[in-house]
Design brief:
Keywords: Membrane, Transmembrane, Transmembrane helix. InterPro entries: Alpha/beta-hydrolase_catalytic, Alpha/beta-hydrolase_N_dom. Pfam families: Abhydrolase_9, Abhydrolase_9_N. This is Alpha/beta-hydrolase family protein. With 595 residues, the protein is of the alpha/beta class. The protein is elongated, with a radius of gyration of 30 Å. A seven-stranded parallel β-sheet has the order 1-3-2-4-5-7-6, sandwiched between helices. The chain starts with 22 loop residues before the first helix and ends with a helix. The protein has 20 helices and seven strands. Helix 16 links the parallel strand 6 and strand 7.
Length: 595
């Protein structure tokens, strides 16, 4: 059995007096020589942490404290600091290893005295500076809160942040060292069988295979994803408080429906059960109204093309008389099948119920999990639904054909975006489009912002002088720009907040500086924001977790912006700005009711 990795703090320099075995003596010995080397190579822990790696880890920790898109609570900052710290330690250790190898080649090894002095003073200096940087970071976070209209709160605590960051860092360091120990053991085992170069190759290959398979197949797929899948499946079978089976024959899940109430899933049941009533619509318009059609098909166990589910949706549209309505709204769902009430409901109020909203569930997993493991299902479902509905619409005479609009938020916007191959195809494919918070992976969105007019920023791009497609964060003013240009029909509106990490997150952030991090910065972005490789990727990843709790028009929160968006995309005859304002008030009241 190998010796334990208990640190022998009594190992002093050969000129130091022999320390006592008391606690104070050991502390004094450690101060005189604050590092150690194992007596031989059989020790599990073979060397003290690398000083250069420690310095880089601290530097990365400091960089993680800089402002990103959104304010961060201390617990998120602590985790972020530890994760970025281990990345910095890896960078520093690689540089240190290369430097030591070069020094050995030049026969000029580093001084042991310099190493001792470094460990005596550098960690203390870095700790003091770290406390000062955390305090600076707290002030920067409060300025960012003020910029977004959030109440000033002392959500940062220097001691807690440093403690959690250090704990996270040490845990990850232990994992990395365990992997390195495994590689050493494998190389040693193969070394007894084959020449040393082959032993290194075989040992590293087997170690990498074990780590990849263990991490992906065991920890990720069967562990984390399996747990999330189980929890999400159970949640999909429930019903949210206050939700009851509808009686209106115009919605799915009713007793007359071809789609059973039990098959809708949690989010589908909420969607169909919260359609506005004719009394609510009439109270808003002052005119007799129709019960809005809401068609929803829950997740089907079938092939990935979703043709059967789309065909069922069309039959349900036949049953509900959806083809006789003025507007048909195909709305993309998020991973769990959720439809934000702020997207279909304003259109139903605008047209006094003379609408049909159709949605199809492709997953019960949370959106971010669905996006990571199989976002293509969203595109397959949206294409199947669009093709089925669009094909049927073409059989209806043009003068009796309903207007077709497309909508979606987040992964739902990505799904509808996936139906088309170009911006012009999107414009030509419907009578209006309204998207909120499209993820950066959306292909048509990428083409639009990639070919935006020169001089327009990526967070508020102008495409072909705003002829058909426009972007907004505060839609009441932004959608009027450029004011001198005509806005043709059909119209496409993207609402995207400059501070929305869902829009900007991409793996490219690891190494490439994004356009949104260069001046001019967005209106709710801290002027102190800077891009740092690796660090900015993890900052934006953490921002994803807090983006849904931001006030409207910040983060991934769009509030009642769809009221203005639909008023621009496809307003009914006689619709005015005052009507939009009244509708925003109604939607705000509905949101308070269900919050």
């Amino acid at each position: 059995m190998e010796k334990s990795d208990v640190t022998d703090f009594s190992a002093a320099t050969e000129h130091s007096p022999a320390p006592s075995n008391s606690f104070i003596g050991r502390v004094e010995a450690f101060i005189r020589r604050p590092h150690w080397d194992p007596p031989d190579d059989t020790w599990v822990v073979r060397r003290w942490p690398d000083l250069t790696g420690y310095c880089f880890a601290t530097l990365f920790f400091w960089l993680s404290l800089t402002p990103s898109l959104l304010p961060r609570p201390w617990i998120m900052q602590g985790l972020l600091g530890g994760i970025t710290g281990i990345a910095g330690y890896g960078v520093g250790s690689l540089l240190s290893t290369a430097a030591r190898a070069l020094a050995r080649r030049l026969d000029r090894p580093f001084s042991a005295h310099l190493r001792k002095r470094g460990w005596q003073f550098i960690p203390l200096v870095l700790l003091v500076v770290s406390i000062a940087v955390v305090v600076w970071g707290a002030r920067a976070q409060r300025r960012l809160q003020l910029l977004m209209g959030l109440s000033q709160s002392s959500t940062w605590n220097a001691g807690l942040i440093i403690g959690l960051s250090l704990g996270t860092f040490l845990f990850l360091l232990a994992v990395c060292r365990a992997v390195r120990l495994l590689a050493r053991k494998l190389v040693a085992w193969f070394g007894a069988l084959v020449p040393l170069p082959l032993a290194y190759a075989a040992g590293l290959l087997v170690c990498a295979t074990l780590v990849v398979v263990g991490t992906k197949n065991v920890l990720w797929d069967r562990g984390f994803i399996g747990f999330i899948d189980h929890v999400s499946r159970q949640a999909n079978e429930g019903t949210e408080p206050g939700i009851h089976q509808p009686v209106s024959p115009q919605v799915s899940g009713s007793p007359q429906s071809l789609v059973s109430w039990s098959s809708l899933g949690t989010k589908g049941r909420t969607f169909v059960a919260t359609a506005p009533t004719t009394q609510e619509l009439t109270a808003f318009s002052g005119q007799p109204s129709l019960p809005p059609v809401r068609v929803y098909v829950g997740e089907q166990v079938e092939a990935a093309d979703f043709t059967a589910a789309a065909a069922l949706a069309v039959r349900e549209m036949d049953r509900t008389g959806a083809w006789d309505r003025k507007v048909i709204n195909l709305v993309g769902t998020t991973g769990s099948g959720w439809v934000d009430r702020n997207i279909p409901t304003p259109l139903e109020y605008m047209y006094n119920g003379d609408t049909a909203t159709v949605a199809l569930q492709y997953s019960y997993l949370p959106s971010w999990i669905s996006f990571l493991v199989d976002k293509e299902r969203a595109g397959h479902a949206a294409r199947a639904l669009y093709q089925a509905v669009h094909t049927r619409l073409l059989t209806i005479p043009a003068d009796h054909r309903p207007k077709l609009v497309l909508s979606g938020e987040s992964l739902g916007a990505y799904a509808m975006d996936s139906v088309f191959t170009s911006p012009q195809a999107l414009i030509d494919g419907a009578d209006g489009v309204f998207f909120e918070g499209p993820p950066a992976a959306s292909k048509v969105w990428q083409q639009i912002v990639g070919h935006r007019d020169q001089g327009s920023p990526i967070w508020r791009p102008i495409y072909q002088n705003g002829k058909s497609i426009r972007f907004g964060q505060w839609p009441r003013s932004d959608l009027k720009y450029p004011s001198s240009a005509p806005w043709d029909h059909p119209r496409v509106v993207f609402l995207q907040n400059a501070s929305d990490p869902v829009v900007w997150w991409t793996p490219d952030l690891l190494t490439d500086k994004p356009a949104w991090a260069s001046p001019p910065l967005g209106p709710d972005i801290s002027p102190q924001l800077r891009y740092y490789p690796i660090v900015s990727f993890w900052q934006t990843t953490v921002d994803l977790a807090v983006s849904f709790g931001m006030p409207a028009q910040h983060g991934h929160s769009y509030g009642t912006g769809a009221c203005v968006g639909w008023g621009a995309v496809l307003p009914p005859p006689g619709w005015t700005a005052a009507d939009t304002e009244n509708l925003e008030n109604v939607m705000a009241a509905i949101n308070r009711k269900w919050s």
